[in-house]
Design a protein that fits this description.
The complex is a heterodimer.
Chain A lengths: L3 E4 L7 H9 L8 E6 L4 H12 L2 E6 L6 E6 L2
Parallel strand pairs in A: 1-2
Antiparallel strand pairs in A: 2-4, 3-4
Chain B lengths: L14 H13 L9 H21 L6 E4 L2 H15 L6 E5 L4 H10 L6 E5 L9 H7 L4 E7 L11 H11 L3 E4 L11 H4 L3 E5 L10 E5 L25 H39 L3 E4 L9 E6 L4 H10 L19 H6 L6 E5 L6 H21 L6
Parallel strand pairs in B: 2-3, 2-4, 4-5, 5-6
Antiparallel strand pairs in B: 1-7, 6-7, 8-9, 9-10
Helix pairs in contact in B: 1-8, 2-8, 3-4, 8-11, 9-11
The chains are: A alpha+beta, B alpha/beta.
């Protein structure tokens, strides 16, 4: 379960990453944000963003249909 | 074209190629396969061009065939070598960041469920994992494929560390040298190539000429219906004028290569330094030292690659990008993805003989402003 869900379906990269960067501050450290995206670049870009910003990339699930949900834990 | 910074795709025709092309268009249009005098003279010129290319690569002339492009050379190399070793094995080993033409040909083979393709991963610089590559080679490996240098980020691949293992396992190694020929020394023996490919428009030849080298002793069977052309490897009449021009360009470039490499390496170092200094949140990709002299790639966080290409284009700069928004498939570059690099805001800058200090200065003045502007528009300037 996520503490915050960002549905970015229909928006292309870098929007999902910008949205993640904009909103992760709303979380307490240890909380998890879910980013839902149907853009093929979201996976590599969210992983790279986590590396650049020192956040924890938790993983991804292929849901809902036609999209992927990426989970990031705030440090 | 002073703002042309996409040499890794194609460079302007070398003056030596232009002269050879004009001559050949006037005199070299007869079919070299015919037996009358005019055709035999063209045949001689074609064989001289083959000898020039062979000498440049350390190969024998009969090992060299001219193709219609670097892509076609890779297709013929992969499909023909796999067909030639069909009895030995059905496994293809390739670096994960090979050119799409190599991967597409391997993919085609993998339509057969008996064929397995092992893609060997790379580190964050794009350099292939030597141990994993060696470990993947076995008696049932039909072919191994590795580029000399990566076409998107410029990282040199450890070909000389991998080729002895291929030889020991009896596996032919296809070396895609498209980005290296005319930029850094390329020698088939030294590299340990079983097959080698290259592309003339990257060294100053005209577009439409590729090189396929198949070393003596390497089993190769044409994947296409074959004829007597190009040692039975590339069917159809050769584009002789373009081939003569390509060979003239290569010959001229080899003489200029070292001095130009030093000059371009310095310019690339300046781009690397200035980009890091003047653009926040930018990642320069590829190996900082073991790299091609003329190419640098970086990704700018929160910037759309297509928009940045557009800004640069309006200012007269031609560069390329591996970002998904710039691809017909809308998928990010497989190279950037395999490296774990940021795929958006990606720009590849590649220099050539016509690039001077003033071009680079102008580019470096413009780029930080363009990036800042696009971040502001996206509301991402304070993230």
């Amino acid at each position: 379960m996520a503490d915050l869900t960002l549905d970015t379906r229909g928006r292309r990269c870098p929007f999902p990453v910008i949205e993640l960067a904009r909103r992760i501050g709303e979380l307490a450290p240890g909380d998890v944000v879910a980013v839902v995206s149907d853009d093929a670049a979201a996976g590599p870009d969210i992983r790279a963003w986590c590396r650049l910003r020192g956040q924890d990339y938790v993983g991804a699930e292929e849901e809902p249909p036609g999209a992927v949900t990426y989970r990031v834990r705030r440090r | 074209m002073s703002g042309y910074l996409d040499a890794a795709s194609a460079v302007p025709l070398h003056p030596a190629a232009r002269a050879a092309l004009e001559r050949a268009l006037a005199e070299g249009w007869t079919d070299p396969a015919r037996l009358y005098g005019a055709a035999r003279r063209v045949r001689i010129r074609l064989d001289e061009a083959r000898a020039t290319v062979a000498r440049a690569l350390g190969a024998e002339p009969e090992e060299v065939s001219f193709t219609a492009s670097g892509t076609q050379a890779n297709h013929l190399a992969v499909l023909g070598a796999a067909a030639g070793r069909w009895r030995a094995g059905r496994r293809i080993v390739a670096g994960a960041v090979e050119h799409s033409s190599v991967l597409a040909a391997a993919d085609r083979l993998a339509n057969d469920p008996a064929v397995a393709v092992d893609l060997i991963g790379v580190d964050h610089t794009g350099r292939v994992d030597v141990e994993a590559f060696r470990a993947a080679l076995g008696p049932d490996t039909a072919l191994a494929c590795l580029q000399t240098a990566n076409h998107e980020v410029g990282t040199l691949q450890p070909v000389e560390e991998i080729s002895p293992g291929c030889a020991a396992a009896g596996v032919p190694l296809l070396i895609d040298a498209a980005q290296s020929v005319g930029r850094v020394p390329v020698d088939v023996d030294r590299l340990g190539a079983g097959l080698l490919t290259a592309s003339a428009h990257k060294w100053g030849g005209p577009p439409g000429v590729g090189i396929l080298v198949v070393r003596r002793g390497v089993r190769w069977r044409s994947p296409l219906p074959s004829d007597e052309r190009e040692n039975g490897r590339v069917p159809g009449a050769e584009n002789v004028p373009a081939i003569l021009a390509a060979a003239a360009a290569l010959d001229a470039r080899l003489g200029e290569m070292e001095a130009e490499g030093t000059r371009l390496r310095r310019l690339v170092d300046r781009i690397r330094g200035t980009v890091l200094d003047r653009i926040p949140d930018v990642e320069i990709l590829g190996d900082p030292v073991r790299r091609l002299p003329h190419l640098v790639t970086f990704s700018c966080l929160y910037v759309e690659g297509e928009a940045l290409l557009g800004e640069l284009d309006r200012a007269g700069f031609a560069v390329s990008s591996g970002s998904s928004c710039t691809a017909a498939t809308r998928s990010p570059s497989h190279v950037l993805e395999a490296m774990g690099a940021l795929t958006h805001g990606n720009i590849r800058v590649s220099l050539h003989a016509g690039t001077d200090d003033a071009d680079v200065d102008r580019f470096l003045d413009l780029l930080p402003v363009a990036v800042a502007r696009l971040r502001r528009i996206a509301g991402a300037d304070r993230l």
